Amino acid sequence: MIREDITGVRIFYQIDKFLREHANHYTQEEKEFILKNCAWGKKSPLVPDILRQIYDELDMLDPDKNIYEGFVNLLEENFDIDRNIVEIGGGKIPSLAKKIALRQTKGTITVYDDKLITTESPFPNLSLEKRRLKSNEILKDADLIMGFMPCEGTQIAIELAKKNQLDFMIAFCEGSCQNELPAFIEDDWESGMIYEARKAVRDGYLGELKKVKMQKKYQNPYPIIYNKR
Predict the structure, then answer these.
(1) Is 91 helix (H, G, I), strand (E, B) or coil?
(2) DSSP β-bridge partners for residue 87
(3) In this structure, is the dihedral angle defined by the CA atoms of residues 203, 155, 158 and 134, taken in order, positive or negative?
(4) Whole-angstrom Cα distance, residue 153 to residue 151?
(5) 53-81: per-residue pLDDT in tens?
(6) Does residue 126 contact residue 98 with C-beta atoms inside 8 Å?
């Protein structure tokens, strides 16, 4: 949710300036969508990631209603973040990873996404990799894998957690980006992913699967899953 002291005029001006400075990183269609909907966050804390990340980058979000902060708090409640973390599908701007990097006293966080607008990191413990992770990769130095609405990266994260025996936390999206799903989960992507996660936790000896939501405070109706050893 955008801070109450920020006016609609200021929102448009700052976002327009940001897009001009990063003109090569957004398509014309993306820029038109962002400017047309730039005040979305005045009404709801749940906005598309392409816009939410810009809000966060420009320090427009109310810290108490910033869903990235909420996810990091949930992560810290369940895991030690002072270790090596991998984020799958961090988006154009690694908003979530930056917050984790600032809270870490040791360990690292590495973001993988082919949409990253830069690979230059502002922090020594944060690495940005402009590519997609594959489900068969060996993440030898990782301890935990996470994803915040990583869309098609959800199933890859689950498979990587199992293969590498990693702790994990994944926030689901609505699943509308999925266009090549197996027939048995096409009609219910969320249930299908939870089914896959339960299998991964069982077969990878990762403890038990937990599911929570961040709906009351952040109006996010989609579940967050993680393992508990």
Answers:
(1) coil
(2) 111, 146
(3) positive
(4) 5
(5) 999 999 999 999 999 999 999 999 999 99
(6) yes
Q: What is the pTM of this model?
A: 0.93
140 closest CA partner among 175, 164, 116: 164
164-202 residue pLDDT tens: 999 999 999 866 555 454 544 445 889 999 999 999 999
3 state SS of 87: strand
Question: What is the layout of strands, in order, in the sheet containing 208-214?
Answer: 126-129, 109-112, 85-88, 144-148, 167-171, 220-228, 208-214
User: Of 198, 193, 195, nearest to 227 (Cα)?
Assistant: 198
Q: Give the span between the Cα atoms of 111 and 94, in whole angstroms.
A: 7
What tokens does 25 get?
């990183």
Structure tokens at 82: 């002072």
For the chain, list the strands marked E by DSSP: 85-88, 109-112, 126-129, 144-148, 167-171, 208-214, 220-228
**For the chain, which residues score pLDDT lower than 50?**
179, 181, 183-186
Alpha-carbon span 101 to 104, nearest angstrom? 5
